[in-house]
Amino acid sequence: MFFGDIPDKFENLSKLYEIIAGYNQFSSKIPKSTVFSERLAILGLAGNRLDGNIPKEILELSDLRDLRLAQNSLSGSFPIEVGGLKQVGFLDISNNQLAGASWISANEAEGRARKNASTN
């Protein structure tokens, strides 16, 4: 079992395909350095003690297909307007303190993003 902060050392891991570190005791925020891995397709950090906002940069990853952030203490609002979200096939953000829906499918989020963009 791992605990403490998630290491902020992803800058040199540009070919990293997946991060699966769920159900440990990581705490603090999701480091923005996770976006340095341009090929990241799976980010699984469910069941930790993460807090703060979901960095919108994560959802800008063009290869991201699977995002599992459930059962943490993430707060703020989920950045559904980010264009990369349309690539995500599985999304679970349930059991956090996020504003809005506790679980939405990628298709639903993409539809909401389009609706929000058309009203602006």
UniProtKB/TrEMBL annotation:
One of its GO terms (cellular component) is membrane. It comes from the Eukaryota. It is found in: Membrane. Pfam families: LRR_8. Keywords: Receptor, Signal. The keyword Signal applies. It is a single-pass membrane protein. PANTHER family: LEUCINE RICH REPEAT FAMILY PROTEIN, EXPRESSED (PTHR48053). This is Uncharacterized protein. It comes from Kingdonia uniflora.
